[in-house]
Amino acid sequence: MFRTSRGALRRAAVVAAAAVAALTACQPEDLPADDVPASAVPGASATASPSASQPAAPGGRRSLVDAAEAGGLRKHTGDGAVGDVPVDPGEMRDGMRLVVSHFAAPDGGDPVLFEGVDNVPEDTNKRREHLFRGMLEYIEWDPELGQPQARPVADPGPLGGSVECLMASLAENGQVVCGWADESTAAVALFPDSTLDEAGKLFVAMRGDLER
What is the signed CA dihedral for 204, 200, 100, 76, rounded to 10 degrees? Predict the structure, then answer.
């Protein structure tokens, strides 16, 4: 049910190659120009979050930010940083940007995996569904257990759009996947030990630092 097509996997491999190149300080010209658009910059190579004095507009087209902190969690660097693109982001076209990061509380704990894209040319809800499926594949969710149903987060925050979370666990707490979709961006995050309510609130808080 959650299998990714061979074409999507090939595209994910191309994006993964760009991410690895960024992490090893390769220049864009070191990669095949026909395969990796220069605008598809992986999150690991981006700059820190803009100042809180630059709030995001409540509507319209926005972009993702590779923030140093998100929702009070700090981005992992060094050994804890994301070394590749774990979830197929879908087709990356000219002008799109990919951000992939691990975030964790300052006192430690299992990291939250975040992956998102901006300047999405198609329906962002469909792109979010693609990311949801990719995240379920990443955690090796057993399709025989059924397809987890995403539930809307009651308060999506000042950025609006649609924010949903699904419980990828048979217990009331466990792995939770949350995703947002608005006019131009779609993103998901994996919360390894949480509840739907806790993960939803944290995801909304993180979004305030990851989207501008």
Answer: 90
